[in-house]
Every structure is written in C-alpha cells, then in structure tokens.
Amino acid sequence: MQDAGNGLGYFFLGLGVGAVVGMLFSPRSGTATRNYLQTKTREGADYLKQQGHDLVDGATETIERGKQKLRNQVNNLSEAVDAGRQAYRETVETRFANSKT
Questions:
Q1: What would the pLDDT profile of 30-76 be if each residue is shown by its tens digit?
Q2: Could you say which DSSP state residue 86 is in?
Q3: How far is it, in rounded angstroms, from Cα 7 to Cα 4?
Q4: I need a surface site. Which of 24, 42, 67, 87 has the fewest CB within 10 A?
Q5: Rounded Cα gap, residues 67 and 61, in angstroms
Q6: Dihedral sign, CA of 71, 76, 81, 83?
C-alpha cells in the first residue's frame, strides 16, 4: 500500500511541475492559460474520482465473492457434519439392533 501512496505523491509532484513549466512556456495569455489549467484540473479530479469509484466497486465485488465462497464452504461443512451424524446414528442403531438378537 505504501507504493500506491508514493505513486500518488509522484503524480501530484509531476502535475505541479508540469503546470509550472506549462505556464512559463505557454504561448497563451494568462487568462487562457488559467482557463486551460482549470479545465485540466477538473479533468484530473474527475479522473481520480472515477478511479476511486472503480476501486470501491472492484473491492465490493471481491468482498461479495469472498462472502459467497465462505457461505458455500459453511454449507458444505454443515452438510458434511449432518451426514456424519446420520451415519453415526445408523451405525449405533444397527449395532443396537444386532446386539438384541
């Protein structure tokens, strides 16, 4: 997880450096440059927001699949325990019936 934090930090550092360099060498007027930067900032924020939503959706799906697998395993275990109990009862009943004769 620490790598993701570092990557995000480098992203913002690059964003800042790019913005400064872009302003210094821009052939546009100050107003046009500010509008361009505002547009790109909004696009970047929207992109990050969408990536966050995608990450949450993916994590939610993964958690739900894990829960379903766990429920299936619990059901399988429960069925195995019930089958074992039934087999034990049948064995005990058979031995008890055989011991009476």
A1: 788 788 889 988 998 999 999 999 999 999 999 999 999 999 999 99
A2: H
A3: 5
A4: 24
A5: 10
A6: positive
d(CA 51, CA 69): 27
Three-state SS annotation for 9-59: HHHHHHHHHHHHHHHHCCCCCHHHHHHHHHHHHHHHHHHHHHHHHHHHHHH
Residue type, 66: G
* Cα–Cα distance for residue pair 94/101, rounded to 1 Å: 11
**For residue 19, what are its two tokens?**
């913005």
Q: What is the pLDDT of residue 20?
A: 79
Element (H, E) at 101: none
Q: How confident is the model at residue 3 (pLDDT cuts 50, 70, 90)?
A: low
